[in-house]
Design brief:
- This protein is α/β, with parallel strands linked by helices and about 475 residues long.
- The chain is built from 20 helices and eleven strands.
- The strands form four sheets. A four-stranded parallel sheet has the order 6-7-10-11, covered by helices on one side.
- Helix 1 crosses helix 19, helix 6 packs across helix 19 and helix 11 crosses helix 12.
């Protein structure tokens, strides 16, 4: 069988001078704790702390990076066991699904998924063979045996991964019952919620009215007006803060920000309640709610994250059958300088406001985002993310923003993952890429070694801890 490629100097420059420096920098940060301030791991796994059912449900089912690639090659989501909205029968045998995955594992060559999975198999489970058709069931058995042991329980792995803090992403109406169970248990690790109100601030959401009803139930008041809506959001933010939240998260199509008058906002809200709001109404309401969220963050101190530019559910056939987050969200060209102007002019100079901006449009890094973050005290750049949290994507990010924004107007790294076991793999990759980038600057005599070592520690741990108020 072919062995997994897991060289100790992986991802470092082949130039021996750079590689030697990169290795020294990496060795100084590789064992630092992980802070995961933005992601989608379900807190129920830590609340219940039960063994993971099987390798298929752990590795494949929650990871849209994996099944979107398989789907692109004509493999149906039904055959991969991805649940349907209406409960239509899909493949339920985890071994059959794993075999399909193994048969097509070669598709991931050269992708971040291959890098992450190699780390997970090698470091996490001691598996040193490449997964393929012939060894699929043997590796499945090895994984399954380990997953049933106490060493691979979610809380044990959390500690093994050396995670300081992990943030989940939760709807505005969420009861946070799983977070309560964790806090009330004798396990004292930090799993924090993050307030994400998209379901009620986006009027184009097909479940907007149902989500609004859930929000009403969560605050115990029927929301019949815009003013009651705003008060409900303020109340929920305070509840999230009481449960440890330090941030909010806003996934929007456009970063356009614009403040409406109270009467204008009320009129749009009333049309939405009657099911009569237009596309223009929705765009204006989202722009206004971004302004309101910034205002609330200035008051309550929650860090505000905006990640725009995704054409959600581009493939309606998949969306209608399987729902959202199934690998068919596609990046869009995105403008920031004009769109964020109103928000930044009103709140960007405030010392009590922190805005972290992400992008899927790399062309905006040096043209708009780095100059904006390099000026406004409140604004920081989120890391290379989603389609760009890869070796080349992280390198492009550093090259395009550092000279204008510096290192200290960025926020380190976050993994943004639903796949819990990929967290250490993703952070290891980021640490190696940053070490190599810093090594290049040292070899060119742009940085001295002492500065590079400090920057590496800041990018790995200190910046994210400071920016997210952890």
């Amino acid at each position: 069988m072919s062995e997994l490629l897991f060289n100790k100097d992986r991802f470092f420059d082949p130039n021996p001078t750079v590689r030697k420096i990169a290795r020294e920098i990496y060795d100084s940060i590789k064992d630092m704790p992980i802070i995961s301030p933005h992601g989608h791991v379900d807190p129920i796994i830590f609340a219940e702390n039960k063994p993971f059912p099987n390798p298929t449900s752990l590795f494949l089912i929650p990871d849209h990076y994996l099944f979107r690639m398989l789907y692109s090659q004509g493999i149906s989501l039904e055959s991969l066991g991805i649940p349907t909205i209406d409960g239509t029968e899909v493949e339920s045998d985890p071994r059959k699904i794993w075999q399909i995955f193994a048969d097509h594992f070669y598709l991931f060559r050269g992708t971040p998924s291959s890098v992450w999975l190699t780390y997970e198999f090698y470091e996490g489970f001691g598996i040193k063979e490449k997964l393929d058709s012939k060894n699929a069931q043997k590796i499945y058995d090895l994984l399954q045996e380990k997953l049933q042991s106490s060493e691979y329980l979610p809380r044990t792995l959390f500690e093994k991964f050396n995670i300081d803090v992990l943030s989940t992403t939760d709807a505005a109406s969420d009861s946070l019952d799983q977070h309560k169970k964790i806090k009330e248990s004798d396990w004292k690790k930090r799993i924090l919620p993050c307030f994400r109100p998209d379901g009620v601030t986006d009027l184009t959401n097909i479940n907007w009215k149902a989500n609004l009803n859930l929000l009403s139930a969560s605050v115990g008041t029927e929301i019949t007006s815009y003013s009651k809506f705003i008060q409900a959001l303020k109340d929920r933010r305070q509840f999230f803060k009481s449960m440890g939240a330090t941030s909010t998260d806003h996934g929007v199509f456009s970063p356009y920000t614009h403040e409406l008058t109270e009467n204008e906002a009320e009129a749009i809200f009333q049309r939405a309640l009657k099911g009569k709001s237009s596309a223009d109404d929705a765009g204006l309401f989202t722009a206004h709610m971004l302004m309101k969220m910034a205002e609330m963050s200035t008051d309550d101190g929650l860090v505000m994250q905006i990640h725009p530019g995704s054409f959600r559910n581009h493939n309606p056939i998949i969306f209608e059958k399987f729902g959202p987050d199934k690998g068919c969200d596609i990046p869009m060209q995105t403008e920031y300088t004009a769109n964020l102007k109103e928000m930044l002019n009103k709140f960007g100079n405030s010392k009590s406001f922190t805005l972290i901006v992400f992008t899927l449009d790399e062309t905006s890094y040096s043209r708009e985002l780095a100059p904006l973050a390099g000026h406004y005290p409140a604004m920081k750049l989120g890391p290379a993310w989603w389609f760009h949290d890869s070796i080349e994507g992280m390198i492009r990010f550093r090259r395009m923003v550092t000279e204008t924004a510096g290192f200290y107007n960025t926020v380190g790294f976050n993994d943004d993952t639903r796949a819990f076991l990929s967290i250490p793999a993703r952070h290891d990759l980021a640490r190696r890429v940053d070490s190599n980038y810093l090594a290049e600057l040292v070899s060119k005599h742009i940085l001295d070694m002492a500065d590079a070592m400090q920057i590496a520690k800041d990018l790995t741990y200190n910046l994210v801890k400071k920016t997210y108020k952890l």
